[in-house]
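Whiteboard transcription, Tuesday session. T.W. wrote the structure tokens on the left side:
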């Protein structure tokens, strides 16, 4: 099913980068996803096309006005009646891979990218269904965040990845980090490919990859393992990784 994105942004030109990208550009070119851009400046009624104003209560920076955003969202809603509206902001719900999978299940999204200090809270109350953050840091606008979400979501859609590729094998899709990857030559600068990968033993390769994914998650992101839990088989693999890791440190 085709996924429709409508983005409300003062900088529609920035989104060209998505169309130039390999995977995402191709997916959009093939009709797996559609991108429509709405500039709130086109929905102003004054000659100076003003979209921002000083904050009530004082302080630095400017706030995006309700009316141009409200009218731009209304136009996007009329064009995409099945879509929900999401505002990108550091105050939003933190998006991880499971949320990206949920987002990919909807027919479409109207993404609101803010600028300046943010948007008038009444616009959020009146027009926004969800508020999303891509991480605990502050960007200078929501555009990059909207592009991050679109990239992460579009590559999950059926037909987005090329032949033989699959998002099912992605790191994070099973709550673990990815295993290490290697390509030719078998040895370079004194570093060899792990022998199991050139053994031709597919069961052993699969087992090694699981071991590495579990081990790296344990080393780098123990918080993910804590949340996820382990099967008995995975616990045994991880114990094997920990033992050999320990040996490496001592020996
Ligand atoms: N806009 C500014 N910072 C952001 C963030 N971390 N996530 C989503 N939107 C943002």
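and on the right, the sequence the group agreed on:
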């Amino acid at each position: 099913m085709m996924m429709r994105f409508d983005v409300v942004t003062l900088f529609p030109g920035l989104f060209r980068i998505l169309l130039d990208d390999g995977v995402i550009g191709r997916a959009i070119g093939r009709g797996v996803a559609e991108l429509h851009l709405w500039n709130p400046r086109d929905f102003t009624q004054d000659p100076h096309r003003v979209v921002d104003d000083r904050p009530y209560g004082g302080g630095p920076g400017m706030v995006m006005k309700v009316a141009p955003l409200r009218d731009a969202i209304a136009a996007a809603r009329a064009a995409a009646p099945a879509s929900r509206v999401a505002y990108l902001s550091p105050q939003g719900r933190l998006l991880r891979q499971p949320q990206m999978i949920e987002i990919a299940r909807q027919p479409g999204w109207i993404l609101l990218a803010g600028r300046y200090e943010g948007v008038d809270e009444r616009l959020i109350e009146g027009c926004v269904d969800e508020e999303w953050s891509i991480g605990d840091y502050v960007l200078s606008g929501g555009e990059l965040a909207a592009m991050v979400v679109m990239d992460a979501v579009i590559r999950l859609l059926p037909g987005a990845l090329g032949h033989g590729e699959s998002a099912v094998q992605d790191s994070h899709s099973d709550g673990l980090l990815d295993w290490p990857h290697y390509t030719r030559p078998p040895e370079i600068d004194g570093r060899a490919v792990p022998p199991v990968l050139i053994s031709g033993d597919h069961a052993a390769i699969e087992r090694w990859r699981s071991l590495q994914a579990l081990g790296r998650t344990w080393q780098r992101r123990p918080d993910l393992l804590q949340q996820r839990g382990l099967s008995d088989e995975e616990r045994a693999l991880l114990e094997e990784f920990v033992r050999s890791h320990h040996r490496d440190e001592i020996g």
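Someone added at the bottom: The chain is about 40% helix and 15% strand.
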